[in-house]
Amino acid sequence: MWLGFPVVMLFVMGSTSLTEKLISAEEQPYAGQPHLPALPADAVVALGGDEHLSHNDLLGFAMGEGGSRVLTAVELVRLGKARTLVLGGSSPIPGRPDAPSMGVLQDWVTSWGLTAGSVTNLGICINTHDEAVAFRALARRQGWLKVILVTSALHMRRSVALFKTQGIDVTPVAADFKAAGVSPPLPLSPFPRERRLFLMTLYMHEKIGWWVYRARGWV
Q1: What pLDDT sits at residue 116?
Q2: Dihedral, CA atoms, 173, 216, 136, 92, nearest 10 degrees?
Q3: What is the Cα Rg of the chain in Å?
Q4: What is the mean pLDDT of residues 94-105?
Q5: What average pLDDT does range 59-86 have in this prediction?
Q6: 34-216 has which fold?
Q7: Interatomic CA distance for residues 136 and 190, integer angstroms
Q8: Is the pLDDT assigned to residue 115 strictly greater than 80?
């Protein structure tokens, strides 16, 4: 039983559609067209995803699973839905402890003139809680009241709760949907699929993260 249970769970999560159904249930509240403010928001903030420095990439950086967060935020500013683009926190550039790696992506967005407004970033942050705290300080300095929050749909519930705990009322605009509205769904497989197992790690990360944040009083 000790060895058999994890094997059974491996096949259930990796071979059936259960993983997609669990994630779709979490993403569904943020599906459909977002209800944006009638007037442009003061800022749109895109939380950090899987962006990282890459010296061999032409851009100097690479974007992973959460890359559509930044693209969505850029598009919102381009469409006039916000005046300022705020990119999320990131790790420091190696050898430069005070320089966030997100600055490279910020420079790329600015150089292409992808937004009519200003572009900044939240600096060095370890997790989403750090980003919420950093954004609160920035919003208070700038006097921002209307804020659009962009992050992955699966990550949105925890992110909105974090920002509200910091006293920031946000309008959520989800990106990077993993299951809700994503087609075609993976078929039933006699062997666990790597993609489904990866999705299960994301789902468990959010569930465990929620309870950890609750225990710490962050949400």
Answers
A1: 60
A2: -90
A3: 19
A4: 86
A5: 89
A6: Rossmann fold (3.40.50)
A7: 49
A8: no
The alpha carbon torsion through 148, 149, 151, 153 (nearest 10 deg) reads: -80
Proportion of the chain above pLDDT 70, given as a percent:
98
Helix axes 67-78, 102-111, angle to 10 degrees: 30
* pLDDT tens, residue by residue, 137-176: 999 999 999 999 999 999 999 999 999 999 999 999 999 9
**How many Cβ atoms sit within 10 Å of the Cβ of residue 168?**
19
Residues 81, 72 contacting (CB under 8 angstroms): no
Residue with tokens 């430069």: 96
Q: What SS3 string covers the chain?
A: CCCHHHHHHHHHHHHCCHHHHHHHHHHHHHCCCCCCCCCCECEEEECCCCCEECCCCCCCEECCCCHHHHHHHHHHHHCCCECEEEECCECEECCEEEEECHHHHHHHHHHCCCCCCEEEECCECCCHHHHHHHHHHHHHHHCCCCEEEEEEHHHHHHHHHHHHHCCCCEEEEEECCCCCCCCCCCCCCCCCCHHHHHHHHHHHHHHHHHHHHHHHCCC
pTM to 2 decimal places: 0.90
Cα-Cα end-to-end distance for the chain = 37
